[in-house]
Write a structure and sequence with these properties.
Strand content: over 45%
CATH class of the largest domain: Mainly Beta
Helix content: 10-25%
Largest sheet: 6 strands, antiparallel
Radius of gyration: 25 Å
């Protein structure tokens, strides 16, 4: 949005107009004051370890509490490096509270000498506590060292996010959650290890059966082993999951489909690659995700049951009674068959 000394035509406001309280608190994580005697431009705070929470408290003035969205920006660079050649972006997760909901994640271009910025849009309340967590550390003794130096955190209030249309796809780097080690470059996300989770947020989905398409290829100079045919990926959302196989290639992106029945609303689709294979100096399987897309193909078979239960509390009793009745009938039939000398099939 446009910056200005007050509200502007786009309905945005600067932080100075509306912020009653703003604090960045480092005591919950291992953060240090950033200085460099050879570079006066270095300032802010830094950490040498991933997942160190940086607490940001923001309280709005009463006159500005009509705002519901804010653009949260972080300006950062590497410190006490150098960065490895393969490291292109810092990944910073934003949560509401230390153990709260993951609101999203931003990628910040990584450099040893220059500051760069990344941002996401977050819902804003009259009083807010955000936690920032850097998630993709990289270190090899005497060779490279990624350490994030955060110079500043900025907030711009907006009437609504810039992206107002409903998305049905995400690039690999447009994730909202990670549990594991991922690296980001040219709109992709990659990991070198199995059983690392990356999640993609889709807001206000209509309930339905969705075709989930995931595209990926291998990453790395060593290449795939000769007998490696496909990446095994678990795709999960809203309590359901499916395992898919994506044809493995060193040069071309390939895709595969999962069908998931989701009940709608804000939905996170998680991907977990499970079949890593590595032999030093010979081969190395590493998955790089290019894109995930969702397409609704049928009505949900779960939503109708949920709607039936939700119509009235009596339906819960009725449904439970129905299950009890069916169970009782099955028990009576089993008892009669036993009385009649019924024998089941041999296994």
């Amino acid at each position: 949005g446009n910056n200005g000394n007050g509200n502007n035509a786009n309905g945005n406001a600067t932080a100075s107009d509306c912020i009653q309280l703003s604090k960045v608190i480092t005591k919950k994580g291992k953060w240090y004051q950033s200085t460099n005697p050879n570079d006066d431009a270095v300032s802010g705070v830094h950490t040498y370890w991933k997942n160190q929470p940086l607490k940001v408290r923001i309280k709005l003035k009463p006159a500005c509490r009509q705002y519901r969205w804010a653009k949260l920006s972080v300006i950062a660079r590497n410190i006490n490096g150098p960065l490895p050649d393969f490291y292109h972006n810092f990944n910073v997760e934003v949560r509401r509270g230390n153990k709260g909901k993951v609101l999203g994640a931003m990628t910040i271009p990584a450099a040893d000498q220059q500051y760069h910025s990344g941002s996401i849009y977050v819902r804003i309340r009259p009083a807010n506590t955000f936690w920032l967590l850097w998630t993709n550390d990289a270190w090899k003794e005497g060779v490279y060292d990624a350490n994030i130096n955060i110079k500043s955190v900025k907030l711009e209030l907006v009437g609504s996010p810039v992206q107002t249309t409903k998305k049905v796809k995400r690039n690999g780097d447009q994730h909202c959650y990670t549990n594991g080690n991922f690296f980001f470059d040219k709109k992709t996300a990659r990991t070198y290890w199995a059983n690392q989770t990356i999640g993609y947020c889709f807001d206000n989905l209509e309930s339905g059966i969705y075709e989930v398409r995931v595209s990926a290829k291998n990453y790395g100079a060593a290449g795939l082993p000769a007998d490696y045919q496909a990446f095994a990926v678990n795709v999960a959302a809203d309590g359901v999951s499916e395992n898919i196989s994506i044809q493995a290639s060193d040069t071309a992106y390939k895709s595969s489909l999962a069908l998931l029945d989701v009940r709608g609303g804000d939905t996170v689709v998680n991907l977990v690659w499970t079949n890593d294979k590595y032999k030093q100096g010979v081969y190395d399987a590493n998955i790089m995700y290019r894109q995930i897309s969702l397409r609704r193909v049928a009505n949900s078979e779960r939503a109708s049951l949920a709607a039936y239960i939700g119509q009235h509390s009596n339906n819960i009793v009725m449904l439970f009674s129905l299950f009890v009745a069916v169970g009782a009938l099955a028990a009576i039939m089993l008892y009669r068959r036993r009385q009649e000398g019924f024998e089941g099939p041999d296994f």
